[in-house]
Amino acid sequence: MGWPAAQAQTKPSRVPRSERQAPVPAAGPRVNKADSIAIRTIFDEALLRGQSYENLRYLTGKIGARLSGSPQAQQAVEWGRLTMEKAGFDKVYLQEVMVPHWVRGAKEKGQIIGEKGKGIDVAVCALGSSIGTNGKLKAGVVEVTSFDELARLPEDKVKGKFVFFNRPFDDRLIEPGMAYGGAVEQRGRGAIEAARRGGVGALVRSMTSARDDNPHTGNMRYDEAVPKVPAAALSTLAADKLSLLLKANPGLEFELEMSCQNLPEEKSYNVVGELIGSKFPNEIITVGGHLDSWDLAQGAHDDGTGCVQSIEALRLLKAAGLRPERTLRAVLFMNEENGVRGGNKYAELAREKKENHLAAMESDGGAFTPRGFNVEASPAVVKQLQRWAPLFRPYHASDIKAGHAGTDIEPLQKAVQPKALIGYDGDSQRYFDLHHSALDTFDQVHRRELELGGANMAAMLYLLSKYGL
Fold it and tell me: How far is CA 140 from the centre of its chain?
């Protein structure tokens, strides 16, 4: 698509891009020319000498998938520590945390079996934390789109069958995250609700609006009050096929084979790096992403990008000569995907040490084109952050609004009550096409989008450190 006519007629500047300054926003509360120049310096460093992309290349290519408790997760811990030390942070250290150790085992198999016994292979994967099937598990199938629908079914319609949760994303919603939130409970609680009604297992439509044969994993839960049954995700095409065939033949069966299992917990670590504040060293601002990932791919967007951006945000400030007035702490959290043990441990230690956490920021929505920041704070603090929006407008990240900030920093709210939790927000339209699937690989990450995200995070840290809240 071509440029709009008004832009196409504009003559390009002959000044080298690295020497141009962003438009200076109109004077207002906590917005001034010096800040505009400082932020431009951050972006020049990121776009000309940014290190996020190459750090991500190593993390995803040399280490790869980093499921909690795995050898690769431990390798990632060492990578994070060495990368922070190389960046020249004032302090780098580890926080010990015990994490779950779930293993997938052999590749899962799923078949739709008709009346004549003929099987149709479909794409499936085990949901995280699920038990295995102990061989092949074959049973009838009952389809539902909600827990309420399941609760209304007669017992004989459910007992001894797979419960097939086939609620799709609501594609009318502009924000895919809202569609995810509206469907994900069937993944998290599907096995519990199926077992409560006598089902032998849960089959769950993948959490995506993409129509393909890539099943999306993700964590599920059990309730000790009901039996544990296996839970698997079907690709969206497999779910559509099963639904169509069930309408034609309600008596068909499904055969599932999974060898996943839960092993004893393992010792792991959060990785922490600090730049000590020059004026208020006891006021802490945290920025982080989660180091663990699911095991179907390389964990690039989820959440290798958040990790490298968090490290880079501190490095950019250091490289630009912008010494923070408050202490900045980059944290690579372990075990967000199937336990949030790292986030909980970080908050627990902060409470024990009686640390003063001014704010915390997280990047866990992929490294797509910047849009802005989601904020969990009082209306007054949200309004204060919105006063800085003109400084982010040249970098397409001026949408600062109330919204969910992040899973790993959420425990801090109860533990030490920071004034704001902030989530870096990028364009999420493609995120759930990749999320928790075999498609979440390094080649899906765009270098400039990644580096721009880290620079916007660094700019927010610069402002928070300078002005406080």
Answer: 35
Burial (CB < 10 A; 0-12, 13-18, 19+), residue 134, is exposed
Distance CA 398, CA 392 (A): 5
Identity at 294, one-letter amino acid code: W
Residue 208: pLDDT over 60? yes
CB 271 within 8 A of CB 94: yes
Find the distance separating the first CA and the last CA of the chain, reported in whole Å: 42
Query: Could you tell me which of 311, 292, 310 has the C-alpha nearest to residue 302?
Result: 292
How many contiguous H segments (helices) and E segments (strands) does the chain have?
16, 16
CA distances for 155 relative to 48, 99, 167, 196, angstroms: 64, 38, 21, 10
Region 323-347: what's the mean pLDDT? 98
What does CATH list as the number for 105-259?
3.50.30.30
Q: Percent of the chain at pLDDT above 70?
A: 93
- CB atoms closer than 10 angstroms to residue 156: 9
Q: Write the Ramachandran bin of 366: left for phi over 0, alpha for psi from -120 to 50, otherwise beta.
A: left
- What average pLDDT does the segment 45-60 reach? 98
Query: What span, in angstroms and rounded, lies between the C-alpha atoms of 81 and 68?
Result: 17
pLDDT per residue as tens digits for the range 14-48: 333 333 333 333 434 456 899 999 999 999 999 99
**pLDDT exceeds cutoff 80 at 335:** yes
Q: Tell me what pLDDT residue 238 has.
A: 98
Domain ranges of the chain: 28-101+264-467, 105-259
3-state secondary structure 236-285: HHHHHHHHHHHHHCCCCEEEEECCCEEEEEEEEEEEEEEECCCCEEEEEE
Q: Average pLDDT of 380-400?
A: 97
Tally of residues, the chain: 469
Percent of the chain at pLDDT exceeding 90: 92
Helix (H) / strand (E) element for 381: namely helix 379-386
The residues carrying an active-site annotation are 336
CB contact at 8 A, 179 and 171:
yes
The values of phi and psi at residue 26, to 5°, are -60, 145
Let me know: does 234 contact 143? Beta carbons within 8 Å. Answer: no
d(CA 452, CA 420): 22
What does the alpha-carbon distance between residue 339 and residue 174 come to, in Å, rounded to a whole number? 29
Q: What is the CATH number of domain 28-101+264-467?
A: 3.40.630.10
pTM of the predicted structure, to 2 decimals: 0.92
CB 308 within 8 A of CB 282: no
pLDDT score at 414: 97
- Find out whether 333 and 400 touch, Cβ atoms under 8 Å: no
